[in-house]
From TrEMBL:
One of its GO terms (biological process) is metal ion transport. Belongs to the bacterial solute-binding protein 9 family. It comes from the Bacteria. Residues 135-146 have a biased composition (Acidic residues). GO terms for molecular function: metal ion binding. This is ABC-type metal ion transport system, periplasmic component/surface adhesin. Keywords: Coiled coil, Signal, Transport. It comes from Acetivibrio clariflavus (strain DSM 19732 / NBRC 101661 / EBR45). Pfam families: ZnuA. Residues 126-153 are annotated as: Disordered. Residues 184-215 form a coiled coil. InterPro entries: Bact_metal-bind_prot9, ZnuA-like.
Length: 323
């Protein structure tokens, strides 16, 4: 449970408050004395980052809200068990950039929960309505206009590039240090250590990919623009801009035509993609499909280097596909 003070009256008040699902403190800092703090993360990559930053900090418990098989949180609906996890927490770490559309509900129900937004202040790429492929007519599929501005104006998949991951890790580290000043030094030290590892991984990948000449690729989900930018890959086409959204037959035919004309080296899907459009495009174009990992799913308890290991695998895949 939360903090317990000596004064019985205060204690009673706290018990009443916590049983109503509210927090006890109006301070912007989280009270960590004696009972520690619980941090809930929205989904898998935020969990890995936060675990690294808090790894040896006593009294800090990190729990992950969405089941690790959930994947990206586009249009995610919270379950009662998710809400229970949020209710236990003092701090919540989210990606932001519109990915967690349920966050407004959480803020409403738990106004005192400290929210840390990993993408805060970062420069974001445009969302699906404006990828630079030039096929303007094809992008005019109907969308709820009220949703459009809010959710699709930026691409939220910042963590999929290592540079984006580094920026998010630094952001989480700094905001955690501010929320919990007692442990600030440890958070900063862990952040710095983890960032060094991530930088080394980025360096390794950039070096390994230096000699690649044809960098024209096609992807099946909007997860990879940051990754592609980092490694100078030229995304000719994105087949399904959103998870679960399929292009119409006409759109698909247009995309296939464009791929055939564009000297595309490889098609990249992700482990979460279960549609058979991938096979159709591969068959129609004669281009092989490979799997890149946007690091949104993994085991219940990933090891601290899970993100780096996933990127290592992605490097092997790129080398195999683009050689
Ligand atoms: Zn996604």
């Amino acid at each position: 449970m939360k903090l317990i003070r000596i004064l019985p009256i205060l204690l009673a008040a706290i018990l009443i408050l916590t049983s109503c699902g509210k927090t006890y403190s109006k301070n912007s800092n989280v009270d960590t004395e004696e009972n520690g703090i619980t941090i809930v993360t929205s989904f898998y990559p935020m969990y890995i980052f936060t675990k690294n930053i808090t790894k040896d900090v006593n009294g800090v418990k990190v729990i992950n809200m969405a089941e690790p098989k959930t994947g990206c949180l586009h249009d995610y609906q919270m379950t009662p068990s998710d809400m229970k996890k949020v209710e236990q927490a003092d701090i919540m770490v989210i990606n932001g950039a519109g990915l967690e559309s349920f966050i407004e509900k959480i803020i409403k129900e738990r106004p005192q929960l400290k929210i840390i937004e990993a993408s805060k202040g970062l420069e974001l790429l445009n969302g699906e309505s404006s990828h630079e492929s030039g096929d303007i007519e094809e992008d005019e599929h109907e969308e709820d206009s009220e949703q459009k501005d809010h959710e699709h104006s930026v691409n939220a998949h910042v963590w999929v590039s290592i540079t984006g991951a580094i920026a998010e890790v630094k952001n989480i580290g700094e905001q955690l240090a501010a929320a919990d000043p007692d442990n600030a030094e440890k958070y900063r030290k862990n952040t710095e250590e983890y960032v060094k590892k991530l930088e080394a991984q980025r360096e390794k990948m950039l070096n390994a990919l230096k000699g690649i000449e044809n960098r024209n690729i096609v992807t099946f989900h909007e997860a990879f623009p940051y990754f592609a930018k980092e490694f100078d890959l030229n995304v000719i086409e994105i087949i399904e801009t959103e998870e679960g959204s399929s292009p119409s037959a006409g759109e698909l035919a247009g995309k296939i035509k464009k791929i055939k004309e564009s000297n595309v080296k490889a098609l990249f899907t992700d482990p979460q993609n279960v549609t058979n459009i991938v096979q159709t495009v591969s068959k129609e174009t004669g281009i092989k499909v490979y799997e890149l990992d946007p690091v949104v799913t993994g085991p219940e308890e990933p090891d601290l280097d899970a993100y780096i290991k996933a990127m290592d695998k992605n490097l092997d895949v790129l080398l195999e596909a683009l050689k």
